[in-house]
Design a protein that fits this description.
The complex is a heterotrimer of chains A (about 325), B (about 475) and C (about 270). By secondary structure, chain A is mainly α. Chain A is built from twelve helices and no strands. The chains are: A mainly alpha (about 325), B alpha/beta (about 475), C mainly alpha (about 270).
Chain lengths: ~325, ~475, ~270
Amino acid sequence: MTGRGMKNFLVLRLLQAGIVAVVVGALCFVLMRVLPGDAAMRIAAGRYGPDARITDAAAKIRIELGLDRPLAVQFFEWLGSLARFDLGHSLVTGSPVAHELQVQLGASVWLAAAALLLSLLIGPIVGLLGGLKPGGTADRMGLFGAVTFRAVPPFVLGLVLMLVFSRQLGWLPPAGFGSPREILLPALTLALGLAAISSRVTRNAVAAVARAPYFAFARYKGLPEAVVVRRHGLRNAAIPVVSYLGLQAIYLIEGVVVVESLFAYPGIGHALVHAIIERDVPMVQGTALTMGLMFVAIAAAVDLLTYWLDPRMGKNA
Amino acid sequence: MNIQLKQDLVVRNLSVHSREGTIVSGVSLALGQNQPLTLLGESGSGKSLVAQAIMGNLPQELKASGQISFRDADLLAETAIERRRRWGRSIGLLPQEPWLALDPTMPVGPQVAEVHRYVRGKPVGESAAAARENLAEVGLAAAGALYPFQISGGMGQRVAIAMAHAAGAELLIADEPTKGLDATLRDSVTARLRQEVDAGRLLLTITHDVAVARALGGMIGVMLDGRLIEYGPAEVLLAAAQHDYTKALLAAEPSQWQRQAQTLPGKCVVSARGLEKRYGDKTLFSGFDIDIAAGEVVSIVGPSGCGKTTIGNILLGLVKPDAGAVTRDASLSPLRFQKLYQDPPAAFAPHQTLRKGLADVARLHARDWEEIRALCARLKLQEALLDRLPGQVSGGELQRFALLRALLLEPAFLFADEATSRLDPVSQQEVVRFLLEIVAETGLAVLMVTHDRDLAEKISTRLIPVAGSGTLAEAGMAG
Amino acid sequence: MSTVEPVYQQPKPGLGPARLSGAALLVALAAFAIVGPAVISADPAAQDFGATLAPIGGDYLLGADHYGRSLLARLAHGARLSFGLAFLTMLAAAMPGVFLGLVAGWKGGWTERGLEFLATIVLALPGLMLVLLLLAFSPGNYGPLFLGLALTLWVEFYRVTKAATKGVLAQPHIEAARMLGFGSRYILLHYVLPVIAPMISTLSAFAMATAIIAVSTLSAISVGLQPPTPELGSMIVELLPYFAEAPLHVLLPATLIFLLVLGLQLLAQGERA
């Protein structure tokens, strides 16, 4: 049992990370060139602020960055600096992009982690109750909840929660960042959406394991029920749930962008949307790249977890 | 029965009822040490329900009545909890398709060891050691670290036996233990079950395979439509069956068939020289020569995975050989080379009615629908079946439709790829009989590929054995 | 004792209660979206400051917003916009997706590898991120929104079509059909399309639901369509500050989005998992 299969997963994920960087980099490079006005001028304004000597500064920047050279050369240089994690300066605030990202990344990771944790507290439990008795009351209630929550876009769900919990009941702050109370509403918004899906995946996985011949055979071997469930039920039911987390990473990342903007939560998603509105290309690039890599990292973590749970993955018979 | 043996399990007047009515009625049988019992019957005959009633795992909606005495205890009078307590400890189950009954995410060693640990309450280290011993008893000393997907069907069945040893069950119930195994593996599993009997265990086997019943000996019960229609010692019942159904079942076994009369071969239809095929770095066969003439039935016999199907596909031009050449009679259209498939439903589009499929073939080749009607009558296929989907007719009927479809193109060569291996013996006999009639009438050349040597010997003009290349054959569950 | 068991299970015929209610819901909403803008005389952009936040059931059937614009008219136009944009996006994604999926499944080899690489590139980023990046070129416009959504949605059509096509083509009954003399056209029409058609229609409903959610979400976070376009998502955000005075006004467009998506998901059989 070598780690060859696992190595393959990691190589694929690294490749994906590379594609993310090239796609984001290329789009932002083009964006920088097609925006109305002079690119050097914009960079100068970003660095030094719009003052009288901006034209001189722009000229210097043009030579410094080689903006007068062929586009292809500039493009590879652009990608080169990306590879060195040199993300440039914000066109709006003038501070280094990497600097701003550090703070925002922390906030977003907390939000994503809290959402994932909450969803894992809700989804699998609801799914387990449904899967143990398919067609029963718990199953039908779970289905109703899942269908409902899946039909509500995250921003509407967020608004409804905000209206109910902070406006009507006054229990939680509607926006802000810093305390667990403030993270709760945005995290719950994401968690409910995630749980709507994971509860059904769990339900189907549990129902499938309960029907599986190996589950029945474990009983016929004479094992007590608790041992049957612990040794032959949990791991097998967890495999599809965990591997589905990889797909849920898409919902999570997209949701983080939306929910952060909605709750004015100072994370990377919020910054990305702002950068797009303000056309702050280096910030767009930095935030999009970070979120894309976050997505790849989650997917890689899910791969590793699935690999550990399921011996059939990537191993030859 | 010459000596009255002690009966350890006695079933008296067992019936199984569902809400709609009685599914199994009035079954009485017994088994003891050195006197295994085999229940023969087709699916739906109720033989599995009898086993489930004894085991105590009948589906909830079914109720059993009558009496099942096991070592002086009346099993049907016990509560569900008491019955479950017997599982593993006094009654062990050998599952059908063991590769599905083993937990796919756990190596087989721990799956045996947990029986010692949790059923017999031994400490962890002792359980692991005992499990290694159990696996060694069934010749799998080295397999403990393998996952179920890494072992063959035959090995899976032996793992299940090791588990029964671990639990120490006195009565073994083997539910279709050879389902999906080819003849070689089937014989090794049956031999293993026989050893269990010789070691003093009680054995109840459920099977549809007469060969398994014959090899196990002891008592045989034949079930049909929920009734035990015949019951007696194997040597008596197999030699002189009383009931018509049993007679038909025994007569359908290829080993009981009449040897076909030889016909004079016509001119050569297809031949090949020096065929070679490799998969990866493994050579399936090389330097293989074959000639098939009109009116001949040539059989290639060998275990699963030896590449015999590939030879047929090469002759049809479906697979390219790595070396060698195929020569076909140039006067014959490629459409006159046809194939019958192992799994009949797979050879038909699942959502197309048989009528539509056949009508399209007839239209494409400008054949008259009357020809299809005539062939239906000839192959004893009711026309009402034409409006069904392929999944809604039996395997035997569907294989006859496949034959009918091929006959519409007036084939000169037919490759029958294990074409009857998934049919019950009676259907198999029927399909083969029609096929041979057509060979005699039309001078069709047939290449049979089969793992059933009896079948090949009875019907072929020539027989070509292909040796299995060891590991591939071991890995194969037929198909 | 036939050991051959039916392998193929017919998909449940007919509609079933969930799909039927989804279809009914969609028909009602489509009627509102198509007939509404034609029948309702009020201009969705006409402001009437005398009727600011007019209550439901007064002069304005569904009330008026903070500029005194008829909510009924704005909802009808918003529904038409959502439906229409989602439908066009779905078509723009499904047509190339299904076509390329068929090509890749049929040809295999380098064609398939090339298309797979393309799909991998698109899937490397979550779909919404790609749409956002394209929106950065010109926020608030239909063009990049439509293009970005179609670009991310075609992949699923492609993948499902390719996998299903390959699955069908690998089956013995295709080999049998070829030996019986049937050509590629017959195989495509009679063997491949009947298998992929139900999958494609399910995917189409999901793709439309995704597009509706995406358009309203992006508009709500101010990078999609901009006010005064009567877009359901931006209507919600516009009305949000007046929640205390007119809570129902905020909930109306939200309910409309919910019903649209619910209808589509029920029609697609509700269960993707």
